[in-house]
Amino acid sequence: PVAVRVNGSRIREVTTIESECSGTVIPGLLDLQVNGYGGLDLNDGCVTPDTVAALIRALWAVGVTGFCPTFITAPVEQLLAGLRSVAAVLDGDPALARSVLGVHLEGPWVSARDGARGAHAAEHVRPATVRELDLLTGAGAPISIITLAPEADGVIELIPEIVRRGIIASIGHSEADPSTIAAAVAAGATLSTHLGNGVAAQLPRHPNLLWSQLAADSLWASFIADGHHVDRETLSVFLTAKGVDRSVLVSDTVAVAGLAPGSYETPVGGAVELSDSGRLSLAGTAYLAGAARTLLEGVAWLADSRILELGEAVGLATTNPASLLGDRGVDRGRLDVGCHADLVRVDFSGARPTVLEVIVGGVTVSGAAV
User: Fold this and answer.
1) What percent of the chain has pLDDT over 70?
2) Mind spelling out the 3-state secondary structure of 48-91?
3) Where are the alpha helices (DSSP H) in 118-177?
4) Which of 16, 56, 252, 330 is most buried, with most CB under 10 Å away?
């Protein structure tokens, strides 16, 4: 048991204590891929600053104190509107702004092929150009990650410019062959987005783009740990191959996440069904329609599945994403003196983790003291 003392928005002291504690204190979770949650959708074409602000508060309640608002492939005008909405929140409310770790653009420079494209609209997939990069980076919101397919027109040539602007170039929604993966890594790509997903349903045994990304030591990888996107055995192998120190958990949640099980109509996936287990499927099919488990549930699932110890699983959603983000992750994701006082008190004893209290910047924003 420990006591964490706070001075303003920073941790002042962490000491061991003799008394019993209620719940487990962990750093605030950092989620690098959030499309929506609790009925709030960043990709319905109607996002406003109020949408972004409400999403931040909704994520606080489930233990996420820092996240990357994620916009998927869409017309450039829609992407710009989303970026401007994020920028307005950053300019208007410091308490909310501290929870935004920069935008994650998942597309529009991804594979146009079925399977690898996933739920991204084929009609909006397009070649990568410096002109569009200029428009997106000039919209006022910082961009932290761009997910792209190395085989798409213009991508390999654009990766060095993306990296030069301080943005992580991440491989995803791709059907690239191993030599093209190697070219992307040589050009400066440093991350694989939700590895194991956003690929064709069938691949050559070897070589293929999964093995190539796992074998690339300079690539980090993000994973969705919900038991649906990647099964337990596969995820265990992936984490062993990539290494725990270069892996991060993401939720990749969509707007239906956090809602009651049932049937829903969504702007991106159409008719979908959410099961009690958190599996979100296209209605009447076995195909996934997005992710619906929170990042904290992913941490708990990873530990309950005996893939990692709880402390290691927490690190994949706190310390590791902070390290990957570089300057935007400084002093986050750790219970150390001088770090941001973003803390979550969790009860891990039940079938699902229960958030007892959330503190952001030294202020309780959700839980017992609110």
Assistant:
1) 99
2) CHHHHHHHHHHHHCCCEEEEEEEEECCCHHHHHHHHHHHHHHHH
3) 130-137, 155-164
4) 252
